[in-house]
Amino acid sequence: MRTPPWIVGEVAISGLRVPQVSTRWNQADILGSFKARWGWGRMRYAVEPGLYAVGRPTAASPVLVSANYKVSFDRLRKTLSGLDLWILVLDTKGINVWCAAGKGTFGTEELVGRIAQVGLADVVSGRILILPQLGAPGVAAHEVLERSGFRVVYGPVRAADIPEFLRAGQKATPAMRAVRFGLWDRLILTPVELAGVLKPALILLGILFGLTLVREGFVPFPILLGATAVKAIPFLGAILAGAFFTPLLLPFIPGRAFAWKGWLLGLAWTLLYLQGTNPLWPEGWKTALLYLLLLPPIASFLAMNFTGASTFTSLSGVVKEMKIALPLQIISAGLGILVLILTLGAAL
Amino acid sequence: MRQSYLKNVVTLNLNSDKCIGCGRCLEVCPHDVFVLESGKAELRDREACMECGACARNCSEEAVTVRAGVGCAYAIAIGMLRGTEPHCGE
């Protein structure tokens, strides 16, 4: 395999040649991170598992444990500038620490196996491993100690806090232990939500084009395209309401269930759209009915999917929410489609 | 800004009789659910639990129990379709 550009040297220790990683990003790292945020090649964005060196570590240097999703690994190494330490990268199949810990790939088994495989006990004199706190759902610290002789210390949630954590004698402050979900944290997660709806959105566009073709007959292509675009606006708004604005405004939207929050924003968009395009509602009541039935559940469904990206939803909560919301979404959208069929597409 | 989810759904439980007060649950909890009171862990804010299972996994005495899993509608939906546990696809 070709040596990746972020490997800048080697550190020789007890007969091993450990690759030394850069703490800087190059253009490929920046681009790669950006692409992954949009879901492009995200499932294959991985680094080779194994032991890596940062700076000039010795047998007495600390050992950090990480996942092999390259976005995570890059964020970690970027914060370690000026430090001398080891990074043990586990094979999490290119998945981030939190999700991999949930699946168990960032887990006791893999950690114990990787310690043995790289011969960590011969490299370092200490018997302490610093794990990201969010890896804890997959790793049983007491079992790791029993099976490998290494004691697990859970470090901060965020890689950026690691230098401070090390300076403080491997002590994490309460702020380092808490997960956050601020405006920026939510915003940066929306591209992958939007990329996820691209395929169904294109199918929808195809259907709208077909309906326009049937209604308008054989008019010039640009006119056909324009008419389709106009018909797509209400749907595009519903998609943005659910996959972009609900995540962004999450704590400010009343209620607790994500499906409810998305439905509210979807309804607000529908009313706004109807008011803007069709102020004399009683006349176009079929159109109003169609959009009121069809658009809010789209936003609701997409908002519900954001539970997976959030940092505070429980399995029991999401199951409860889905049991109530999913049937309602299907019924509402189904009735909307019924209106569309009964009016032979005229209500669009 | 503290964001909270549905009420009365959390499955987290702590058996104080088994607790040895090692403090691991406090260390791993991302939502500051636990507190150490006179040598024993206690539930400070049970409703904040997101059921990640870190505390239960790291409790050597098995004093903490929780139905652990991902609070992810997408994974749950795929699990429903396949008739399996929640699954992210692939």
Would you summarize the structure shown here?
The complex is a heterodimer of chains A (348) and B (90). Chain A has 348 residues and is of the alpha/beta class. Chain A contains 15 helices and 7 strands.
Describe the protein's architecture and organization.
The complex is a heterodimer of chains A (348) and B (90). By secondary structure, chain A is of the alpha/beta class. Chain A folds into two domains: 7-179, 3-Layer(aba) Sandwich (Rossmann fold), CATH 3.40.50.11600; 185-342, no CATH class. In chain A, 54% of the residues lie in helices and 10% in strands. Chain A has 15 helices and seven strands. Chain A has helices at residues 27-37, 70-78, 97-103, 108-118, 120-123, 141-148, 162-167, 174-177, 183-187, 190-196, 198-216, 221-249, 258-277, 285-305, 315-342; strands at residues 7-13, 16-21, 50-54, 63-66, 85-89, 128-131, 151-154. A five-stranded mixed sheet of chain A has the order 1-2-3-5-4, sandwiched between helices. A two-stranded parallel sheet of chain A has the order 6-7. The radius of gyration of chain A is 26 Å and the shape is elongated. The model of chain A has no long low-confidence stretch (mean pLDDT 92). Chain B has 90 residues and is of the alpha+beta class. Chain B has a single domain (13-82), classed as Alpha-Beta Plaits, CATH 3.30.70.20. Helix content of chain B is 21%, strand content 13%. Chain B contains three helices and four strands, in the order βαββαβα. The model of chain B has no long low-confidence stretch (mean pLDDT 91). The A-B interface holds A 43, 99, 101-103, 133-134, 136-142, 154, 157, 172, 174, 177-179, 181-182, 250-251, 256-258, 304-305, 307-308, 310-322, 326 and B 1, 3-7, 9-11, 24, 27-32, 48-54, 57-58, 60, 67-77, 86, 88, 90.
